[in-house]
Amino acid sequence: MASPLIAEAMRTDLGWSKTELYGAATLGMLLAGVAAYPVGAAINRGYGRLLMSGASMLAGILLAG
């Protein structure tokens, strides 16, 4: 995996410490794991289009922000 190489470049660009950078990555993976079950259940119930549309709109708003 190339995470250490990417992390070093991100560390120099963002000015974060290694602890902060890997902590943020760990938090992201933890949140993805927590969200996986309810999102999968919603997709199985037929809400996949609504879920993906809402997530795309949220991503666009966050990107603009």
Q: Would you kindly provide a written description of the structure presented here, covering whatever features stand out?
A:
This protein has 65 residues and is mainly alpha-helical. It contains 2 helices and no strands. It has helices spanning 3-14, 18-64.
Could you estimate the helical fraction of the residues in percent?
over 70%
Hey, roughly how much beta strand do the residues contain?
Answer: under 5%
Give the ordered list of helices and strands.
Answer: HH
Shape assignment: elongated
Number of helices: 2
Spatial extent as radius of gyration:
16 Å
Secondary structure category: mainly alpha
* Ends apart, CA distance between termini: 31 Å
Low-confidence stretches: none
Domain module tally: 1
Q: Tell me the major beta sheet.
A: none
How many beta strands in the DSSP annotation?
Answer: 0
Mean pLDDT: 91
